[in-house]
Amino acid sequence: MSSDDASAGAPREPSPAGRSTVVRSAVTRFVVWSAAALLVVASGTLLLSTPLAESLSLHEATVRSVAFANSAVAPLVDEGVRAGRPEAMTPLVRLMRARMADGSVTHMKIWTADGQVLWSDEPGMSGRTYELEPDVVGLFGGTGAIAEVSALDKPENDAEQLHERLIEVYVGFRAADGHPLVFEAYWPTERLQHDVAGIRWAFTTLGLVSLLLLAVALLPLALSLARRVDRGLAEREEMMAHALSASDLERRRLSQDLHDGLVQDIAGLGYALPAVAAALPEEATAERRLLEHAMADLARSAAGARELLSDVYPEDLRSGGLVAAVEDLADRQRRTGTDVHVFVDTRLEDSLAVAQLTFRVVREGLRNVAKHAHASTVAVSAALHGGHVVVEVRDDGVGPPAASDEPPSAPHGGGHLGLRLLRDTLRSVGGELTLRHQLTGGAVLRADFPVVGLTSRVSSAP
C-alpha cells in the first residue's frame, strides 16, 4: 500500500476534549442524582418524623400509665374509695397530687364500668357520669391500654379546654378488692414536640451523612465506569472510522482500476472504430452502419462509465466539493425530466467523513427516487443542526407501498440493499435512517447522525 493510501486510511487519535466531556457529563449526572437522593431522604425524614415521634410518645405514655395504674393506684382503691369515704380517699388523693406535682401528667381520672368518674383531680368532676366509648368500655376487667393524641372535644374534657392537644391514655386495672376499673391520664404534648425535633435532627443527619458517605465511596466507581464507557465509545468510533476509511480507500482503488482498465479500453475502442469505418470500401454501407451504431453505443457506455466513476468515488468533497458532487447527482436526475432542488450546508465540508456520509445518503436517496418513485419534483437538503447532521430527500412520487411509515428495508417497490447497508452504517455511528410517507404525497428519506466521532477520528486526507 502506498503512503497516500496509508495516510488516507489512518484515523486520528481520539480527542482528549471529547473524552473529558463524556467523563465530566457522567460525573455531573452522578452528582445531580446523588443530590436529588439526599433531597428526597431529607424530605421523607421531615414528613415521617411527626408520626414516628407521635408513635414513640404514645408508647412511652402508655407504658408509664400502665405501670402507675397497676403498681401505685390499684393497691389504694378499695371498697372505701368506691364508696367515697374521706378517710379512704386521703391516701389516693395524696398519691395523685404528688404524681402531678412535677407537671409530667396534666390530669388523671378513675372510671367505673357504668361511666361514673370515681375520682378526678378536676374540682366537681367526681361523681359525674358520662357515656364511654366502646374501646374504653372494653378495657374493664382486663389490663389493656389505649392511647391517642386527643382533640379534647369530649364532654368530660371541659376542664382541659385550656390545652390545644393532650396525649390521652386509658388503662384497665383491678382495684385492691378485684373490682374492674379504668385509669385515665392526660400527658402534655411538649414531650411529643421535643421528640419530633430530636427525631428530625437525628434521622436527617444519619440519613444525609450515610448517603454522603455512600456517594463518596461510589464516586471512584462512577469515575471508573464513566472512563470504561468512554473507552468503549472511543473504540467503537475508531472502528467506525477505520471502516469508513477502508471503504473510502476501496472505492478509490475500484475507481482507479475502472479508470485504468475499462474506461481506457472503451476510450481506445472509441478512437479505433472511426479508423475501421474509414478503411471500409464505399460499397460496404451495411458494415459502416453497424460500426456507427457500435460507436454510438460505445459513446453511451463511456459516458455511463465516467458517471459510475464519479458516483463510486467523487472528487474531493471538501472545500466546495460536496456541493459540486451533490449538484452533479442532481444534474443526472434532471436529465431524466425531474425537477431537483438542492440545499447543502457548506459547514458539512469541514469534515471529510461527514461529507462522505452526507454524499452517500443523497446518492442512495436520488437513486431510490429514480428507480421507484416516478416523481416530477425532488428536494434535497443537508444541514447541520447543533451536533447532528440531517439529510432529507423528498419526492412527490408514488410514495411507499403503504400509507404508514415504512422501514428503509422496504422502500418504493420492495427491498433495497443499498438503503439497508446505509441504515446499518448510520446506526453504527449513532444515527438513524427512516423512510416515511408524506401527507401531501410521495416520500421522504431522512438520515440523522451525530458529528461527534466523525470529525475528530477520521483522517482529513482525501
How would you summarize what this structure contains?
This protein is an alpha+beta fold and 462 residues long.
Note down, in words, how this protein is organized.
The protein has 462 residues and is of the alpha+beta class. It has a domain at 316-462: Histidine kinase-like ATPase, C-terminal domain (Heat Shock Protein 90, 2-Layer Sandwich), CATH 3.30.565.10. The chain is built from ten helices and ten strands. The chain has helices spanning 3-9, 16-73, 79-83, 86-100, 134-137, 190-279, 285-312, 321-334, 352-373, 417-428, and strands at 107-111, 117-120, 145-150, 166-174, 180-188, 339-344, 377-385, 388-395, 432-437, 443-450. The chain has a five-stranded antiparallel β-sheet with strand order 2-1-5-4-3. A five-stranded mixed β-sheet has the order 6-7-8-10-9. Strand 6 (339-344), helix 9 and strand 7 form a beta-alpha-beta unit. The chain is rod-shaped. It starts with a helix and ends in a 12-residue tail after the last strand.
Helix content: 55-70%
Q: The CATH topology of the domain at 316-462 is what?
A: Heat Shock Protein 90
The Cα radius of gyration reads 46 Å
Q: Helix- and strand-based class?
A: alpha+beta
Counting H and I runs of at least 4 residues, what is the number of helices? 10
Major beta-sheet overview: 5 strands, antiparallel
- What's the CATH superfamily of the domain at 316-462, by name? Histidine kinase-like ATPase, C-terminal domain
The level-1 CATH class of the domain at 316-462? Alpha Beta
Report the average pLDDT across residues: 78
Order of helices and strands: HHHHEEHEEEHHHEHEEHEE
Spatial ordering of strands, largest sheet: 2-1-5-4-3
Distance between the termini: 16 Å
- Structure summary, number of beta strands: 10
What portion of the residues fall into strands of 2 or more residues? 15-25%
Poorly predicted tracts of residues: 1-18, 403-407, 409-415, 455-462
The coarse overall form would be rod-shaped
Which CATH-level-2 architecture of the domain at 316-462? 2-Layer Sandwich
